[in-house]
Amino acid sequence: MKRILAAATITLVAISATACGSGDDSDSGGKTKVVFSYWGSDARQKLTESAIATFEKKNPTIDIEGDFSDWDSYYEKLATKTAAGDAPDVMSIEIRGLAEYAGRATLADLTGKVNTADLDQDVLKAGQVDGKQYAIPTGVNAFPMIVNRATVEKAGQKVPDDTTWTWDEYISISQKVTEQGDGKVWGTEYNENPAFLQLFAAQRGEQFYQDGKIGLSEQTVKDWWALLQKIISTKAGPSAAQMLETGTNVDQALLATNASAFGSWWSNQLTTLSKGSGQELDLMRMPKAEGATTAGMFLQPAMYYTISSKTEQAAAAQKFVDFLVNDPEAGAILLSDRGLPTNPKVVTAIKDKLTPADQKVLTFIDSIRSELSPIAIPPKGSMEMEDILKRATDSVLFDKASADDAAKAFLTEANAALTE
After folding, report:
1. Tens digit of pLDDT for each residue in 178-195?
2. Using one digit for the tens of pLDDT, what is the confidence trace for 240-275?
3. Spatial CA neighbour of 373 closest among 302, 303, 297
4. Nearest 5°: phi and psi at 204?
5. Whole-prediction pTM
6. For the residues of 17-68, what is the DSSP string, one character each?
């Protein structure tokens, strides 16, 4: 994604002075209309529509219009609307977009506007930029290793102690699972998510971002690629081409189709993976490098609720966001779809309604909370990072560039994106 927000601003500058805020045509049938933009799967759309219906029943003078998109088109659509002065009243964004959108005066300061007293205050800080509360976290995620124990044990292997296991042990077990899989099961799947590199680097005492720039050394990036190459070369996991066919859709994950024993996904995706698998899946700490004192794991807001600085329906928008994060009825509908709620009172109220997979996530996060690194908000330009990293990683895994050249290119392009 090449700074689509900036591109949309340039493209639409001629019309950016048009009516601001999607509330201009809001008074339909005597009701205040609030447009709520979000991305996700069909399952998320159904859950969200149900939550909206509950809110509207409790607030009959407010009409919430869901503006749903799939992930691939979401930010382009949002950037275009924002640049045209037609931003949705309530917008979902992720942590990589927070500094970007807040820095462009797109988001309203919600300090004192939404009740945040019962939210996890440490997580709440992850919605602040320059001391202002521009975003309210929807819930929290971790990026663990997920394991199908039955698949590991069927291959005659034992799931290791996740407080001590290493990358070499992870690859060795995965390789043996593949060997016993009769060509139908891989030991592990892997992905190129920046979260993976972030925790890998943290095990070496490095931060992904530091002082507004990339904090990674060339050697750490190359060593991470070497880890992925070793997974491929030992047949612990599929080739890069085979992984490309799987894509990033959790419904198509090898874990979800019982074609892999291990895989790393966001914790709120465990329910979807378990449902697809039809088997028990468990969460583990990520393996560590030899001598590392931490697994480098961290909590991160699954996403945020934000409100347009241009909305003409601020009060209604604030009431809707308050409902989403504080009302147990909303929590009972959305459950962990947007991460485990950051309001402990909501968690307590819905705990019995959580799926077995969600219960596992709750227990797992509680068990590792003391080990987690603080949440860090990426700087402006980080929205591009996933694409930049994927291009560089693919160039290495598909033998189109040497690790030395690709690492230099990645750091150069990544730092350039952060300074534009």
Report:
1. 999 989 999 999 989 999
2. 999 988 766 788 899 999 999 999 999 989 999 999
3. 297
4. -105, 10
5. 0.87
6. TS--SGGGG--BTTBEEEEEEEE--HHHHHHHHHHHHHHHHH-TTEEEEEEE
